[in-house]
Amino acid sequence: MADQTYTQTSPLTLLLDTVKENPPGWLQDSLDPSKPPNAEGQTAFTKTDFVEGLGEVLYPTVRWDPQEEAFVPVRGDPLKVALNRQDYIAVPGGIEDATLVSKWISRYIGEERHREGSSSREDLKTGATLVDRPLYP
């Protein structure tokens, strides 16, 4: 998978463009620089599972809780919550592509929050918010 080149029209590239244009609610919260990272430096932490009929599904295990005004672990089964809210990301391809999308989301969150200027790179240094290599050239 690491050797695959993604073009502007590949399914994965189209998915990433769609996620940027219309992010699910949990990702919008993670991108919001007015919402501080949790104690672990996370604004998002995702997991992936295969779901019959959907394929690989990427979903958050940490979400913004407006009552606590903090990013907290999902109460209950994070996959079921995402399926009920329909705010998962169905990833074309297998687990390798889902992992790449998760890393891309982490990098995207870090770059967007840093670009907004409200959080320093030091605040966003965990693996949950920044990834060192790009998804595609």
Count of β-strands: 5
Evaluate the radius of gyration.
Answer: 14 Å
> What's the N-to-C terminus distance?
14 Å
Please state the overall shape, judged from the principal axes of the Cα atoms: globular
Portion of residues in beta strands equals 15-25%
Main beta-sheet annotation: 3 strands, antiparallel
Structure write-up:
It is globular, with a radius of gyration of 14 Å. It has four helices and five strands. It is α+β, with helices and mostly antiparallel strands and 137 residues long. It has one domain. It has a three-stranded antiparallel sheet, sandwiched between helices. Helices cover 35% and strands 17% of the residues.
Briefly characterize the structure:
This protein is an alpha+beta fold and 137 residues long. Helices cover 35% and strands 17% of the residues.
What topology emerges from the helices and strands here?
Layout lengths: L10 H11 L3 H7 L14 E6 L3 E6 L1 E4 L4 E4 L4 H8 L3 E3 L3 H22 L21
Antiparallel strand pairs: 1-2, 2-5, 3-4
Give structural attributes.
alpha+beta, disordered C terminus, globular, 137 residues, single chain, disordered N terminus, two-stranded antiparallel ribbon, three-stranded antiparallel β-sheet
